[in-house]
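User: Could you walk me through two proteins back to back? I'd like the raw sequence and the structure tokens for each, with a short line separating them so I can tell where one ends and the next begins.

Assistant: Of course. Protein one, sequence then structure:
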Amino acid sequence: MNHNPSIAEWTLSLAPMMDWTDRHFRYFFRLLSKKTYLYTEMVTTGAILKSANPSRFLEYDKIEHPIALQLGGDDPNLLAEAAIIGESFGYDEINLNVGCPSDRVQSGAFGACLMKEPKLVAKMVSMVKTKVKVPVTVKHRIGIDGRESFDDLFEFVREIKEAGVDRIIVHARIAILKGLSPALNRTVPPLRYDDVYKLKDYFPELPIVINGGILNFDSAKFHLKYVDGVMIGRAAYENPYQFLNADCDFYGEIPSSLPREEILLQLIPYLESEMERGTKAHHILKHILGLYQGVDGAREYRRYFSDPKHFQQSAKDIIYTFLSLREERKLSVAK
């Protein structure tokens, strides 16, 4: 079962997470890792096609490449139309969401509930592939309640593979759609990594990325013995600094020793630019609260960047005031 993948640009990726992986977090994350493959939050076809200004949902900074647009929907024609627009914005991949278990998504008959309709998902893949030149991928669960067996998973993947899917990202848990919240769906259903490994055995030519419960690089490297790529979600958001050496560990780049303080300084031009556009400082700074996770002063850091009174300052003053306070704290502790 041992698998030795070549280094693809998506060998390590950051999971799409609603309300978390917006363009502000992705820009901040790029200050840590230039190579980790990024995904947008899920954007519904309706949000794109019914908007007079789709850039509101599709805008991103050029430093975010490589980056995939994740689409949510269940109509092959509408997905194709949205994908065309996404490709015109320069996204490197179109990803179809067949894994989200939220009530909001279920009410629109897409997300994880589509796993019970493999032929429809295959049609979605096929239709989008006829309209765009970039890779078309699917992110899905290993099953849903009522369709939980490996045979069900195998049939689902067989259908979308025959439709021409370029890569699949598999969250190694089923989604329990009845009686379990989205938050609990991320932890309660047991992880079944072996099912994802087995998929790779049955579909050796299909690139497969594993997702779910992967907390660190040691775990990621273990999974890469059996599959082609690893996607990390909440662990990346809650402790982003661990990705400082992602480019070294997974892509052969030179190791980095960039201190956290330097990352904050590098964020200033972006913060200034966005605040000049009218973006509230909080909408950006809420995404950097994990930067000092696990180190001395983490609590003070989170408290500072969560306090609205600091957001009345200029971008430079917000950052420099914190760095001055941190230096004072160091001196105080040293005495």
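----
Protein two, same layout:
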Amino acid sequence: MRIVGYAAVFDRVDRAGDVVRRGAFAEAGPVPLLMQHRGRAIGDVLSVAEDATGLRIEARVDDAAVARLVRCRALPGLSVGYRARVVQQGAWRAIRRADLVEVSLVAVPMQAAARVDDILDD
């Protein structure tokens, strides 16, 4: 199965007090798809690109058990694993530039608006 959604949404404060800014992931390339930021890859992120809203991804889920969890909405969220390169500290920590390390399917995303928008059958 394939999924499409936003792994990060710009200019929204997450549960940790971070705000991802436009351009933070401008140089992002292919990364693995994990579950809950742990373990082995359960698929691949096929495309990753910034648009006006945030970091839009399309990924392939190879693990059948995880695909079932996604279909029944037990894993509705997306989350990014990254290394912050350029930050600006204010009321919140603004992530201006970061290296994308992985994208994860999660039960509760750090950023509430980071969600799987569409499930596509291969």
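The mean pLDDT is 95.

Let me know if you want the two compared in more detail.
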